[in-house]
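User: Hi! I'm working on a homework problem where we have to compare a predicted structure to a textbook description. Could you give me the structure for the chain below?
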Amino acid sequence: MPAISSNKPYRIGRSRTGLGLFATKPIKKGTKIVRYFGPLLDSRNKKHEGIENKYLFELNNRWTIDGSVRKNIARYINHACRPNAESDVSARKRKVVIRAIKNIEPGEEINYDYGSDYFKAYLKPIGCKCDACENKRRKLRAEERARKKRAKARAEKRAAKAALNGHAVAGKLLNGHGAKSRPGKMAAAKSAIVATAKRGNKRRPGSSLGR
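Assistant: Happy to help. Predicted C-alpha cells:
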C-alpha cells in the first residue's frame, strides 16, 4: 500500500468493497483532492491494445490513462451513484483531477461516479455497493417484509373467520336450530299424538264415571 504524506487530507482504509479513500480533514466543496495518473495508452499503438484492467480512465477516443500503478492514490476512490466528488478531465492536457462537489467531513469515504460504461461492464453484474444503492436495497427488502407480513395477517384473519363460522354452524345443528323437518314426518308425529290422547279418554270397564 503506498505511503501518503501526513499533510494530505485523505488516507487509504477498509471499505465496503475492499479498500477506499477516506477524508482525514475537512475538504471544502470545489477543492482538488488528488490527481488520477498513470502511463498514457495510445489507441493507435498496437502494443497498447491488449492492456486491460479496471483502472483504465479514457480521456478521449485516442488517449487513456492506465491508473493501475500503485503510486496512483486516486485508484482507491470507489464509485458512488450519489458521489461527493467528480473527475475533472482535461483531455487537452491529458490530465484528470478528482474534485470535491460537496463538503466532505473527516471519516467520510471519497467517491465519484465512474460513468455508465464502467457501471454496466463491472458494477451492474455484481450489484453496486455504494450507499445509495445499499439504502435502496434495504428499503426494498423492508417493503417486501412488510408486504409478506400484511399478507400473512390477512390469511390468518380469513382462517380465523372461517373457523368461527364453522363452529357457529355446527352449534346450530347440535341444538336443533336451523334443521328443517320433512312435512310427512311432522304429520305422522301429529297423528300419533292425537291417537294417544283419544285412547286415554275412553272409559274403562267398571268405572263409576257418569253414575
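For your comparison, note the following. The helical segments are 116-123, 131-174, 183-200. Confidence is low (pLDDT under 50) at residues 202-211. Good luck with the assignment!
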